[in-house]
Design a protein that fits this description.
One of its GO terms (biological process) is phosphorelay signal transduction system. The protein is of the alpha/beta class. It has a single domain, classed as Response regulator (Rossmann fold), CATH 3.40.50.2300. The chain is built from 5 helices and 5 strands, in the order βαβαβαβαβα. Strands 2-1-3-4-5 form a 5-stranded parallel beta sheet, with helices on both faces. It is globular and about 35 Å long. The protein starts with 6 loop residues before the first strand and ends in a 14-residue tail after the last helix. The model has no long low-confidence stretch (mean pLDDT 90).
Amino acid sequence: MKRKKSVVLLIEDELFIRELYQNRLQKSGFSVLVASDGMEGFNLASKNPDIILLDIMLPKMNGMEVLAKLKENSQTSGIPIVMLTNLGQESIIKEAFKKGCLGYIMKMRVTPSELSQRVEEFLANPTQKMDVAKIDLD
């Protein structure tokens, strides 16, 4: 019996990066929903993806606002959310974990293939928060 494809919601405003990650994730066997701004991403989360990859710098609603609203909503609060951004300031990372993200990935330090591997790891351990000490800070 074929197992169900995991659904990834990718919320990323930069077209090139969004398409690059979407293509890589699909090649790795994921079904990918995409959103180009925070409001669209928040609305797409109602489709109950298995994991959300969330940029911080987004139009209409920034990633921190999306994260907070998703964690406040009983229908979406259980979805694992991984921040996927280039913002590496310690205060921002700590705020994201405080608001409920599962992990924090720096775009500039991960290849699309590595991203697919990381998504697999997060899906295998959906309640285990990433160790903040393992994040390379700016």
